[in-house]
Specification:
This protein is of the alpha/beta class and 535 residues long. The protein binds xanthosine-5'-monophosphate (XMP). The site of xanthosine-5'-monophosphate (XMP) has 18 residues, from loops.
């Protein structure tokens, strides 16, 4: 989950969380999620065309889509076989909405299963790269070459096409790689257009969204800002809003949007927990008070946080203590702001999707935002202007709002801060040691021009001491680990193949410049099985 305000998600608030989002009405394509690994990616690809797209669970009720300007529906892939008992099916509103529908893999089989065709297990599974040949012209494949490469992943095949459909492309193994009922705007793909291994996939999605669904691609950053500003004004009226700033991009952009909408009705609270990276607290204060002229309450609370963390080494206890301390301080400050009825949060779309699918059997790996909670008597309505956006979209909005570049492109940073990057005891001395090493990592990554290519890069202070030699002296100091990962989102990540020269420079500088550290190692674990943070 991307870093954002350290505000916990489970605030005791009335359930009006969707108020800002609901007020936005735009041409929409809905992706119904049948459990495929890549569903979120489909939504991202459509959004890249400047078309608003929502990812919803497959059993979404009709009422949820009634208020939308629905232009098209995409049925995602999924792990099931359509003919299995209890396999999920497309709800009735999909086929009587009159909207064009694109079925991908499982979604394509659903057409055949629900509209009168026949699906059966294939003789062999088709998985991985394949070549597809067009057999008939159609709007979906317009502009594509006769043969193109795709990424297949299916075990079932369509034996009998449903009435009204024709096969418009075939693959080596299957006579129906793409099927169409052009009249109704129904299309099925046996392969995944959303993944990079289908190089022409974007064109197929564009043909569907723009030619078939007649979306005009007008969902731009400027539009989003205008509509959201109107929605915030409508929700808040003359009310007062408070917002917790963390230094991360999400809470910063959320605050900037709300500030644009209602100016001085917004007060930001920045709880400086003493667990931030070098220079970050100063940057937040500078950006918001001097540059944006926002009303900012700056609470310097390092001592309280360090006291709460004294002698705590267990990662979960650290997280919970930090969460509780934050809530206590935030609440104390918030209560001083008379009649504040609204709380602005930088919740982003992956958080929303994740909580929609939470409770479906996934194990808790780490306590993220779900620690603590405001006391029940503190009822505030949420303003969450980013709850429909992916991280890269949040960054684009931040740029359009004129936030400083370093803030907009800052790597995600966890709410509990450096406390979960200092293994073992969290003391000021050890935090300073980590800050010194971390600053060097950051500087070197920036100098190498790699900052934007990495999802995150940082140092971890281990609690292992090792023996070294400096000049003629024996040293006995801590080992630091460098962590750098590439990722599209934080659900999975790979360790970055940083150049050896760069790693060498970091190691030299850290050992020479940071007192108390005499060894540097590089973390070469992907996620899974590792997580990005060490605790
Ligand atoms: P993990 O370590 O679970 O981290 O692979 C995934 C992403 O989430 C960030 N992270 C957090 N963000 N509060 C946050 O706001 C947290 O408690 C927290 N813990 C981890 C982490 O930096 C990475 O981007």
């Amino acid at each position: 989950m991307p870093a954002k305000s350290t505000m916990p998600d489970t605030l005791t608030t009335p359930p009006a969380a969707d108020a800002t989002a609901a007020a936005i009405r735009h041409q929409t394509i809905v992706v119904l999620d049948f459990g495929a690994q890549y569903s979120m990616l489909i939504a991202r690809r459509i959004r890249e065309l400047n078309i608003f797209c929502e990812l919803l669970p497959w059993d979404t009720p009709r009422e949820r889509i009634e208020a939308m300007d629905l232009h098209g529906i995409i049925l995602s892939g999924g792990p099931n076989s359509v003919y299995e008992p209890d396999a999920p099916q497309a709800p009735a509103w999909v086929f009587d909405s009159g909207a064009p529908v694109l079925g991908i893999c499982y979604g394509m089989q659903l057409f055949a299963y629900q509209l009168g065709g026949h699906v059966a297990p294939g003789a062999e599974r088709e998985y991985g790269p394949a070549s597809v040949t067009r057999t008939l012209d159609s709007p979906l494949l317009a502009g594509l070459p006769n043969d193109f490469d795709v990424w297949m992943s299916h075990g079932d095949r369509i034996e009998t096409l449903p009435p009204g459909f024709q096969s418009i492309a075939r693959s080596g193994n299957s006579p129906v790689a793409v099927m169409a009922d052009v009249e109704r705007g129904y299309y099925g793909l046996q392969f995944h257009p959303e993944v990079v291994h289908t190089p022409r996939g974007k064109e197929i999605l564009r043909n569907f969204a723009i030619t078939v669904c007649r979306c005009d691609g007008s969902w731009t950053a400027g539009n989003f800002i205008d509509e959201t500003v109107d929605a915030i004004r409508a929700q808040v009226g003359a009310g007062k809003v408070i917002c917790g700033l963390s230094g991360g991009v999400d809470s910063a952009v959320a605050a900037a949007l709300v500030h644009r909408a209602i100016g001085d009705q917004l007060t930001c609270i920045f709880v400086d927990n003493g667990l931030l990276r070098a220079g970050e607290a100063e940057e937040v204060v500078e950006a918001f008070t001097r540059n944006m002229k926002m009303h900012l309450v700056h609470i310097e609370a390092e001592e309280e946080f360090l006291a709460a963390l004294a002698e705590v080494t267990n990662p979960e206890t650290k997280r919970v203590r930090i969460g509780n301390t934050f809530v206590r301080l935030f609440e104390r400050e918030a209560r001083r702001i008379e009649d504040a009825r609204f709380l602005c949060q930088g919740t982003v779309y992956p958080d929303v999707i994740e909580s929609a699918s939470a409770g479906r059997g996934s194990a808790k790996i780490k306590t993220h935002h779900n620690v603590g909670g405001l006391p029940p008597d503190m009822k505030m309505e949420l303003v969450e202007p980013l709850r429909l956006l992916f991280k890269d979209e949040v960054r684009r909005i931040g740029e359009a709002l004129g936030l400083p570049e370093e803030m907009v492109w800052r790597h995600p940073f966890p709410g509990p801060g450096l406390a979960i990057r200092v293994m073992g005891d969290v003391t000021r001395e050890r935090l300073d040691m980590l800050r010194g090493a971390d600053l060097i990592v950051m500087q070197e990554v920036r100098n190498a021009g790699l900052y934007r290519d990495l999802w995150q890069s940082f140092a971890v202070l281990t609690d292992t001491k090792t023996v070294g030699v400096m000049g003629d002296f024996r040293t006995y100091g801590y080992a630091v680990a460098i962590r750098a990962v590439v990722a599209d989102d934080a659900m999975t990540a790979d360790w970055a193949r940083l150049p050896h020269e760069l790693l060498g420079r970091m190691s030299n500088r850290i050992v020479n410049e940071v007192h108390g550290i005499n060894r540097v190692v590089y973390d070469i674990t992907s996620k899974p099985p590792g997580t990005i943070e060490w605790e």
